[in-house]
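Sanity check. The docking grid for adenosine-5'-triphosphate depends on where the pocket ends up, so I'm generating a full predicted complex first rather than guessing from homology. Inputs follow.
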Amino acid sequence: MSGFLVGRFVIGRARESSLGGRAFQLQAHALVVYQLLALLLRRRALRRRALRGLLLVVLLCVLGRRLAALGQFAAAIAHDIRTPLTSISLNVQILRRKLQLSDDDREHLDIALEELARLDRSVAEILDFAKPVKLSAEPVDVGELIETAAKGLSPVLSEKGVRLECEPALAAAPLTVQGDPMRLHQVLTNLVGNAAEASAPGAHVTVRATVADDRRVAIEVEDHGRGIGADDLPRIFEPFFTTRPDGTGLGLAICHKVIRAHGGDIRVRSTPGQGSTFTVLLPAAA
Ligand SMILES: Nc1ncnc2c1ncn2[C@@H]1O[C@H](COP(=O)(O)OP(=O)(O)OP(=O)(O)O)[C@@H](O)[C@H]1O
Ligand SMILES: [Mg+2]
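Predicted complex below; grid placement will be based on this.
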């Protein structure tokens, strides 16, 4: 079981490494040159160490290529599933509009449409995760970012009976980060969505922005929901790790990938039964 889980994690990391695919290649080449030079040296201990290093680099390169190919394969399948899925969904919607159906029969079609939409979301997440993150970075006003995300999430939150509180930043000037607004919106939506999912009806989720230090801004998403158990905590950023029956387990893996591509960091504190706080650290705009 653990081998399987490690395998899934590594595949995800291999695709994530597309963010530094070129850098990885350059590093590998530099390492090979270094090891070859070391091999030419006369000292036996150094030569032996260099030979071991060389073997390791070659092994990692072969493994990296295999995993990258697997990632591309998964992305190709996900892509091919998505096209007919959209077509099925559109045709069912047309039939639903045209046919004179009893309420019972219409409900069957509604369930089919909901399931198709869920499948489409999962496939879209897999595709998104498989693709390298391309950022279109610009200065982003964090207050506006939170406000837009809150508006977009309001139907989901009201369905769950969860209230969203946005704490104004305690800073003299508006907090601005250097980032891709679409991608940061996606991260906030994922984090607040998870927080709402873990909360009981009537609870509230807080989003606040603060100055972390002179180079970084922190965005916190705090909930008072079920919290995360000690066994699960180290695994929540692994691709496909989920405890939800309808979850794909890619939300946090994508958040992590996007934030790292920004040169930022994402952290979590959680107490089972009391709640969780996710903190996103992003570079402040110059
Ligand atoms: N705020 C939270 N409170 C409690 N558990 C959480 C919270 N956020 C994440 N988790 C745990 O981490 C797991 C992984 O989260 P992630 O967002 O990656 O996937 P998911 O929500 O299960 O599915 P999806 O891919 O649809 O987002 C969740 O299934 C849940 O167990
Ligand atoms: Mg999620």
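Relevant for the grid: Strands lie at 138-141, 163-167, 176-179, 204-211, 216-223, 265-271, 275-283.
Also worth noting: Residues 190, 193-194, 247, 251 surround magnesium ion (ligand 2) (CB under 6 Å).
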